[in-house]
Amino acid sequence: LPTVILVGRPNVGKSALFNRLIRRREALVYNTPDDHVTRDIREGIAKLGDLRFRVLDSAGLEMAASSGSILDRTAEMTGNVIARSQFAIFLIDVRDGLHPMDLEVGKWLRKHAPGVRTILAMNKSESLDDHRGYLTSAAGEAHKLGYGDPIAISAETGLGMVDLYESLLPLLEEYMLNAIDDKASEGSEFINAEESKLPLQLAIVGRPNVGKSTLLNALLQQDRVLVGPEVGLTRDSVRAQFQYQGRTIFLVDTAGWLQRSHQEKGPSSLSVMQSRKSLMRAHVIALVLDAEEIVNARSSMKHAEVVIARRAVEEGRSLVVIVNKMDLLRGNQKLYEKVIKAVPEEIQTVIPQVTGIPVVFVSALEGRGRTGVMRQVVSAYEKWCLRLSTARLNRWLRKVMSRHSWKDQASQPKIKYFTQVKARPPTFVAFISGKTHLSDTDIRFLTKSLKEDFDMGGIPIRIMQRCVP
Ligand code: GDP
C-alpha cells in the first residue's frame, strides 16, 4: 500500500483528518496549541472513496519546530517515518492564514522529504465564507508555501473530501502501477531467461495418411520415420530434435493420434493415450489436413480434426494448420483457390474465440513448405511467449477504453488496471473496481483489441478478472 503522511504545525487538524480517513473515533483530537506532549506516530489504513492507503499522523514530529528539547528523538523518528512515506498531506489552518510555523513546516518537509509528493490542504474551511472570497484569498496566500494550489477541506465536517480524493487518485494510481510493474519485470526477466533455454516443442498431429510422417521427414531433412501408404503404419510417437535458425525444435510425432475411431482399437489405443499426453506437452501444435480430401468433402475439417483443434486451443496451445498435398491440386486453379479460401474460413467458424490461426499450404512429398511451416511455428511460439509490461498495458487500456463506445455509462466496465500474470499462453488479469464485472462481450472486446494491437493473432489469450475495493 502507498503511504501518506499527514504533516503540519500543531492543532491544524491532523488527528481530525486522520480519524476521518480511518473512520474510527478512537484517537484524541488535541485542541491546545501549546500542547508539548510528545505523541507517538499513529498509523492506520485510510479509506477515501475507493482509495486505500496507509496513513501516518505525524503529531510526534511537529515538535521539531516548537521544542528543542526533543529534537534528537524527533530527528531519529523523522528519518524512519519519512522513509516509509511516498506522499504527504500538508495541512494549514485556513482561519489563521499563513502562519510563520507553516513556513517552518514547509522548510522541514523540503529538507527531510524532498522526494515525497505533497498535497497542500487548507483545513477548517467550513469556517470561512467562500462567497466573500475569503477562501480564494487564503488560497492565494497558501500558494506561497510552494506546494501549488491548496484544496479546501474540513476534517470535522467532511467538506472537500472529494477534492482530496481527486488530488490523491492520480498519485496513488501511478504508484500502484509502478509497484506492479517492478514485480512484473522482475518476474519476466527470470522467466525469459528460463524460457529461452527451453526448446520449442512441436507436435505434428492429424488423421492417418494426411502426410504427417512425410512432413516430419521434410522438416528433419532426412528419412527418419518410416513412410508408407498403409493406414496407421507409424504407430509410436517419434521424437526428434533439429535446429532451425539457432533454435532447438523438439519434435513430437503423434502418428497414433486419432486412429482409434475407425480402425484397430486394440494396440493403438495406448498410442492414442500417449499422443494425447505429448500433445499437451507441446507448445505449438501443427494440425495437418489433406488437401485432396478437402476437395472431395463438404467441409474442410472432419469431426476428429475439429475436436483436436478445439482441444489444442482449450489447452492454451498455439495452433498452426497445415494443408498438405497441395501438389495434387496443381493444374486445377479452381480447386486450388477453393481450398485456400475454404480452410481459413472453416477454422474461424469452428474456433471463433481465436482469430487469425495461421494456415500454411504445402507439399510435404515435394519437400516444399518447410520454410513456411517453420516461420509460422516459430512466430506462433514467440507470440505465445509474449510478455507485456504493466505500464504499457495500462497506457493501451486507456486508449482502448476511450476508443470504444458503450451503450451507457453504467455498462462501461471500470477497470482500474490491467496486468499480464503469465505467458505461454498470455494470461491477463483485469482489476475491476467495486462490484462491477466484465461481461462476455467486454472480454471479447479486450481480447480482440489485445490481438490487434499487439499482433497476437492465432494465440489463445486468457483474461481473468478480480475485484478490488
Ligand atoms: P501419416 O499417416 O499422416 O504419417 O501419413 P504419411 O506421411 O505416412 O503419408 C501417407 C501417404 O501420403 C504416403 O503415401 C505419402 O507419400 C503421401 N503424401 C504425404 N505428403 C504428401 C504430399 O504432399 N503430396 C502427395 N501427393 N502425397 C503425399
**Looking at the structure, what is the overall shape?**
elongated
Q: Report the uncertain regions.
A: 25-38, 62-72, 184-194, 226-238, 255-274
Biggest sheet strand order reads 2-3-1-4-5-6
CATH class of the largest domain: Alpha Beta
- The oligomeric status of these chains comes to single chain
Q: CATH topology of the largest domain, anyone? A: Rossmann fold
The first-to-last residue Cα distance is: 13 Å
Instruction: Tell me what the CATH architecture of the largest domain is.
Output: 3-Layer(aba) Sandwich
What small molecules does this complex bind?
guanosine-5'-diphosphate
Strand content: 15-25%
Keywords: GTP-binding, Nucleotide-binding, Repeat, Ribosome biogenesis
Domain G: 3-124, 202-325
GO biological process, one term: ribosome biogenesis
Organism: Aquilegia coerulea
Q: What is this structure's SSE topology?
A:
Layout: E1 3-7, H1 14-22, E2 42-48, E3 51-57, H2 63-66, H3 71-84, E4 87-93, H4 100-112, E5 117-123, H5 134-142, E6 151-152, H6 161-197, E7 200-205, H7 212-220, E8 239-244, E9 247-253, H8 268-281, E10 284-290, H9 291-296, H10 303-314, E11 318-324, H11 333-350, E12 359-361, H12 370-384, H13 390-403, E13 415-422, E14 427-433, H14 440-454, E15 462-468
The structure holds guanosine-5'-diphosphate.
